[in-house]
Amino acid sequence: MRRLWEIFLVSLKLGCTSFGGPTAHLGYFQNEYVQKRKWLSDHDYSQLVALSQFLPGPASSQVGMGIGLLRGGIFGSIVSFLGFTLPSVLLLMAFAYFSTRTELEMGWVHGLKLVAVAIVAQAIFDMSKKLILSIRHFIIALLALVVVLLWMHPLAQVTAIFVASVIGYQFFKKTAERDDIKEAVIPISKTTGVCFLALFVILLVGLPVASPFIQYEWFAIIEKFYLSGALVFGGGHVVLPLLEAQFVQSGLMSSSDFLAGYGMTQAVPGPLFTFASYIGMVIAGVPGAIIATVAIFLPAFLLIVGAMPFWLALHRIAGLRGAMAGANAAVVGILAAAFIHPIVTQTIQNGLDILLASVFLLLLIRWSIPPYLLVLIGVVVGVIFN
């Protein structure tokens, strides 16, 4: 119990101070867990980061869960997740409560939307440099963009990722990079890992199949957030188009509320997936926020715990690395589609908006201004120009 409490407090500290997105989070983790506390070696940490990048889900959250697992078993993984996630969950729930009880079209909210334009544009730019490695990767991304824009359906993103994975398996398995992975000491058995992976698949397949027969509000919320969390490749920003398809296109929330919440998510520390807490709060209050948070992070938890006993084997399968390369190319196109619609189409209203969004993007790329500071600037600018 003492060790679990220690894991929780350390992860809570990181959850309160880790601004800047998944890449920055990994730097905070390396400093705290590896350099300062010596909970694992640099080599083991790099292996864990590689595994989290290989699996779908929020990379930094999965690394935190994995460190908790190595330190304190399955319960260590859970308390590590709770500590790292709790601060941003509470902040976004409070924001949702406040914003839904005020006039949403105030200038500061529009400022948040313009910040979202800049941040997503930077995410696309950064991801393209890392994931679009050849003309084939570019073609996959372009086709995914076209499919998602022309086929306005929640299954469009899923279909694009699946088809891209099949293409990647065929064409990229010989070129996908491979790390030299050594055996790591994992505190759970392969049998336990299989059970977790099986539960992940059962929920992934079973929830959509059962959905038409279970007309219950909470079940529908669980299904939508679980599928969104299970199908995210390439980082937290990619959850944006999946959630937009599930909740804005279906009419469960307005595009204005959605974009304001996404902009605010950039201002709080911790994982971007806590955007789900905001959406759940807007849709169904505190119970909705709790259910949404658990549902969207559950796939990441099941995958990281289930995959760690098979760490070495996963990285040796060239075909899976190729499938991941194809899926990563597709998510660049999917994110670009979400950038075009609804972010740009429902945010940029005039030439001043174009100018402000361009300035925000320049601050991010040229001067590397922290996202939370950019959000504050966006709020001030929005109020001034209102």
Automatic annotation (TrEMBL):
Transmembrane intervals: 74-100, 106-124, 131-149, 155-172, 193-214, 226-247, 259-283, 289-313, 325-344, 364-385
Topology relative to the membrane: Multi-pass membrane protein
Gene that produces this protein: chrA
Cited Pfam families: Chromate_transp (PF02417)
N-terminal signal peptide: none
Listed name of the protein: Chromate efflux transporter
Keyword line: Cell membrane, Membrane, Transmembrane, Transmembrane helix
Domain of life of the native organism: Bacteria
